[in-house]
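Form 7-S
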Amino acid sequence: MADNRFFEEAAEQSQVKTAIVEKYFTAWAKVIVNTQKKHPHHTQKLAYIDLFAGPGRYKDGTLSTPLKILSRAVEDEDLRGRLVTIFNDKDPENVSSLKAAIDELPGIERLAFAPKIMCEEVGEQIVKIFEGMRMIPTLFFVDPWGYKGLSLRLVNSVLKDRGCDAIFFFNYNRINMGMNNEAVKYHMEALFEAERFEELRRKLEGKSSRERELLVVEEICAAIKSYGIGYVLPFRFKNSRGTRTSHHLIFASKHFRGYEIMKDIMARESTSNDEGVPSFQYNPADLLPRQALLFKLSQPIKDLKADLLVSFSGRTLRMKEIYEQHSVDTPYIKKNYKDALKELLDEGRITAISKKGNPPRKGTFADDILVTFPERGVGNGEQ
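Output:
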């Protein structure tokens, strides 16, 4: 089966994917638990849902994402009493293997809520169930082996509620091949929605492979945002030779804090960077094509400096405000903003003071530093 071949052949990429999901789960759960402790009258549960869970282990015995999440929960006193987990796979053999792997986990009996394991086809019925529920804070992981079952409604059925984020593995090769295949048009329309899908097909006519990838990924991100989900972040996986894209891991949230956490995680998992600006891709061959992918990837710091001077011309803001307002749909992380602002200050192109009215200490740039940008054409090198 396609999924089991993936567990055999794509272990390296799969382990990076698992690492990203596990790291985000750990950080997300900490934020949720801390919030719940401050509001003890609210629900004291959180959930992790994986509807395409697989067999539990890779062929070499490495734990896959579900077992990594459960192992993390067993080790954490707060999570042991709060975490609700739901795992599903349509393949009975995978479900049997997953159950056995979970049962073998040391300390699994310490969880207050035993993992729920289902064997169902993901489709309209599950979407309707989630749409009709008020979800507790949930991290929703969707990792289909193609496109069947993956839909905008499915993602939004969970993200509609507070504290819920989604991560899904987007099989670019399969979806690209399905664009003009009438036999799978229904699934494409579920993923992009009918009108958007037809418009995308028109845009793809005559485009190069690189242009096609850009358009497809930008369109799925735009489709997610059309549901009011403001923060969407893709991470690209190249094949072992670095010659073509195989998958994208796409994160979606309604909250900047979640976006910021995931961006930092993806930045650290990137295989390359340009002047400290991460590539947001895993490329075993380290061949990084310089092209846009939802946002302009691998732009150097000098371009960020120029953009900040234009975007905030004549304004005065805190460093943190600049970062939060500008960083969405760009490849830049907080450190990049601090580096850019430090350089602009050293060059005399901006002014900056601390809360006490002093200039920033040499080599630092705190979140609360107040930055003033000159009007365009005044003191910023423009004519």
